[in-house]
Write a structure and sequence with these properties.
CATH topology of the largest domain: Rossmann fold
Distance between the termini: 26 Å
Helix content: 25-40%
Order of helices and strands: EHEEEHEHEEHEHEEEHEHEEH
Shape: globular
CATH architecture of the largest domain: 3-Layer(aba) Sandwich
Largest sheet: 7 strands, mixed
Structural class: alpha/beta
Number of helices: 8
Length: 314
Amino acid sequence: MAGEIKVISGSAHPELARDICKHLGIELCRSRVVRFSNENMLVQIEENVREADVFVIQPSCPPVSDGIVELLITIDALKHASARRITAVLPYFPYARSDKKDRPRISITARLMADLLQTAGANRVLTMDLHSPQVQGFFRIPADQLMAAPIICDYLRESRELDNHVLVAGDVGESKEVGHYANRLNLPIAIVDKRRDGDDENARATNLIGDVEGKVALLIDDEIASGGTLMEACRFVLERGALSVEAAVVHPVLSGHAVERIERSPLRSLVVTDTLPLPPHKRIDKIEVRSVAKLLASAIRAIHDGSSVSRLFR
């Protein structure tokens, strides 16, 4: 059995790390990151972690490359400080969309991220809502994937009447994940058939499978980046007779002009989680944030105790 639990926060999302520690009833492990003028960095663990069960919290957010390197250096520092077990906790996994070789001479970068984590010295990985389930199979160490669907569904039931809602998948690939929400909420599903050309993040909706006429369309997706896909789906279902549109998304990447797009759009509300930090300028009235800290804390406790993590999937 590993020693005491130690939770270390990278620079990416210290607020989430502190919330996780509150649920665990422990203090955040002291560490510091020094960035030098030559853009090198130094990570120092400022307390004893010998024989400890250490969990490093570091979701992938801007600056993405700096965050990845900081995580790898932190894991290496912990390994050489004689931590008994090191778990990389990545609520939002880096390069999760790069999961297949869909054009010549490219890297399957999600697999590369898995290799780097293992090489650095991670013994285990804990993540949430991977864009593609196969990314979990890139690891040769234990990798647990938690789902935010229970948290989001509970909030939707508590915060609004769902009698006239229909769940909408933004594309065919997302329809299986939307099924998890449909089973929990007992709601029908519609699917937007979209086509994407090139790497410009602009997707074009071409057809709708299912019926949204006279209903509140609730768009479900695993992440929102630039917002192009969500805005196109929003426009499309309104043209097909939806009364109004809401959305629920796990990872609020919100890159580029996404927040301005949401603010100007007919989208009534957007429910997200705090797997990624949401700075004050992105916290507009339309965006409702639900915390995943308690779920992650429960998973950390289960991993430490050797009890079932799969019960949290339910």
